[in-house]
Design a protein that fits this description.
mainly alpha, two-stranded antiparallel sheet, 5 helices, about 160 residues, 4 strands
Length: about 160
Amino acid sequence: MSFIYKCPNCGNSVTIEQQVNNITCPYCGTSYNTDANQQPPQFGGGQQQYGYQQPPYGQPQYGYQQPYRSNDVFSEGPSGKSRGIAALLAILLGAIGIHYFYLGKTTPGIVFLVASLISCGILAAVTSIIALIQGIMMFCMSQEEFENKYVNPAVSFPLF
């Protein structure tokens, strides 16, 4: 018999196989006590649920973060940034640095924008070639590599 408790801190459902007095939420790590004499709250008007239950959208399964989905280019990673959208912005509007603004990197975005506007198109060709290469690289790399290289980099101006 499975028991379903609701975490008082994060509100996620915690399913355990046997009734215990102390539960640690796998989502937020909060430990809380349950009354062993009380029937735990259950979904569906007190009916027991069987089989696999899909967690709510955006909630991690089994208490850990879901792995990167590298096969879907347009899915959002843990940061909420899609490498497909960033790559399209880099290919189509990369000369003015729009992809950097999408990634939250305002300094490189301003550098690309100012370089394109002040140079009257001479540096725009250079920045558009750089952005085209970046866009192609974003399409070819996994979501984890994208997150490490462009969203959470060690440097503030990620080029290649």
